[in-house]
Amino acid sequence: MLVDADRLHIAIQKSGRLSDVSRQLLKDAGLRLQNGRNALTARVENFPADIMFVRDDDIPTFVADGVCEFGIVGGNVLEEFRLSSSEPAIEVVAPLGQARCSLKLAAPEATVWEGSSTLEGQRIATSYPAIVTRWLAEQGVRASVVKMNGAVELAPRLRIAPFICDLVSTGATLEANGLRPVADVFDSEAVLVRTTRDLSEPKRVQGEALLSRVEGVLQTKD
Ligand code: PRT
Ligand code: ZN
């Protein structure tokens, strides 16, 4: 399918923890998608928009570049992008109250924790180096941040780092790996984002219409 320049483009996660949340929100907003689950794009039958199914990590880039005017992404991924980008042309238009989780510092059960100064001179493994680096600066602590793209909870056992900072919802994964949370670094939820780049007049109007539909959905859920 060719991408149509006159239609809005909305980036959502193809598969993962945000994909059902995102599809449900679009559905509740009255948008009917064509195409099945395996397509990379879907046309909305009854609204001038196309949906792009992508990796969640790519969503802030697409929206900031203006490739997609809207997107749905975790606040954690958005914040990491903002902190790592020189001109993040992206803004949150609606927090969605879904997919809530926290980036938490954690350490093996036996670790003695005496507040953030315990981290001085230590190593911390994380997939969110920019958020962790900012938090360390706020705490006035010097520590090295080691970027891992996955399986962060294995870092202490593999002796990559004695501390980790990873997303937690129930805490079961930390517990299963003999780790315990010691500090909250960042609280996250899914957010609807919009490009701050200038839009053509038809797209601006369509964007306002999309936003008021989403706001209507969110009000009924308050
Ligand atoms: O393939 P793609 O790159 O698109 O997806 P992904 O694998 O990078 O992301 P995905 O689908 O795992 O998560 C997408 C977003 O969901 C995250 O960026 C968060 O905003 C949000 N979210 C909410 C979570 C969790 N809850 C969560 N629990 N993301 C990850 N987790 C992990 C957690 O780190 C642990 O490993 O899920 C596991 C279970 O957590 P516990 O605490 O319940 O055991
Ligand atoms: Zn991802």
Task: Provide a short characterization of the protein structure.
The protein has 222 residues and is α/β, with parallel strands linked by helices.
Give the count of helical stretches.
Answer: 6
Largest sheet: 6 strands, mixed
CATH topology heading of the largest domain: D-Maltodextrin-Binding Protein, domain 2
Q: What's the overall geometry?
A: elongated
- pLDDT under 50 segments (min length 5)? none
From the 3D coordinates, which CATH architecture of the largest domain would you assign? 3-Layer(aba) Sandwich
Structural class: alpha/beta
CATH class of the largest domain: Alpha Beta
Tell how many strands the DSSP assignment holds: 11
Cofactor: Mg(2+)
Catalytic activity: 1-(5-phospho-beta-D-ribosyl)-ATP + diphosphate = 5-phospho-alpha-D-ribose 1-diphosphate + ATP
Main location: cytoplasm
GO molecular function: glycosyltransferase activity
Annotation keywords:
single chain, 222 residues, alpha/beta, D-Maltodextrin-Binding Protein, domain 2, 2 domains, 6-stranded mixed sheet, 5-stranded mixed sheet, 6 helices, 29% helix, 29% strand, binds zinc ion
